[in-house]
Amino acid sequence: MLHSYDMDTKETKVNTTFEGSNEGIRINKYLSQAGVLSRRKADEAVDRGDVTINGRVAISGDKVNPGDVVEYLGKTVTVEKVERVILAYNKPLGLVCTSKEADKDSIFRKLDYPDMLYYVGRLDKNSQGLLLLTNDGELANQIQKARNNHEKEYVVRVDKPLTAAFVKGMMSGVPLEVDGEDKIRVTKECVVEQIGKNTFRIIITEGINRQIRRMCEHFGYRVTFLKRVRVMNIPLGNLPLGHYRKLSANEEKTLREMCK
Q: Residue 168: CB partners within 8 Å, gap ≥ 6?
């Protein structure tokens, strides 16, 4: 399951909104708000000794107060107010969700946008459809938390005709191996609707790695087409492939309220 998001730049000097109180905010949240690292990656960086506060090596649980100097890998992380942006992007096949420095097929090499963004929820190279992109690290973190049960909707085509047993099995929960662990995890119950001989619509509320493909494989089916058409209240609609749009004011307001 993906808990983090990659940056579109190696710069650690970023503009964002400092959302802490007078008592300060935890170092992992500070780095996440600044767009440098996800909270999980920030925790790992702190444990490695890559982060300092006022020249002292930070430790897990440290808080950052206004006026403190935070550095990551020797570079100062500055925090200033900027406009938050959330984009809906129709990801084409063949692109990967990673930083542009990491892969020639990164979405950020194809996306013509002037500011640093991170993706919210991975779509693999062979999948297409709606991908949310934002410079708001805290919002990205809230959307991706599995315990928040945020809906993601997909249209999926498989290599042979569907059966009633397949649809029922997919809906009821499917046992999947957990990456890197010697145990089985049963997926949450979900909504599945057959819309064609080989095609179905599915709504899930978690994000296990390659979840839908692996669920289908459990029943002997192979996915030949997978498209995400909605994340929470944001639909893909008729957005052209490879294009993006800013969320409307009402869409953003509702999205943020759903994340509280």
A: none
Most confident of 106-115, 141-150, 224-233: 224-233
State the catalytic residues. 124
Residue 100 contacts residue 109 (beta carbons within 8 Å): yes
Q: Tokens at residue 168, please?
A: 């029922």
SS3 of the chain: the string is: CCCCCCCCCCCCCCCCCCCCCCCCEEHHHHHHHCCCCCHHHHHHHHHHCCEEECCEECCCCCEECCCCCEEECCEECCCCCCCCCEEEEEECCCCECCCCCCCCCEHHHHCCCCCCCEEECCCCCCCEEEEEEECCHHHHHHHHCHHHCCCEEEEEEECCCCCHHHHHHHHHCCEEECCCCCCEEECCCCEEEECCCCEEEEEECCCCCCHHHHHHHHCCCCEEEEEEEEECCEECCCCCCCCEEECCHHHHHHHHHHHC
pLDDT for 16 equals 37
Residue 73 has pLDDT above 80, yes or no: yes
pLDDT of residue 80: 62
Task: State how beta strands 63-64 and 191-194 pair.
Answer: unpaired
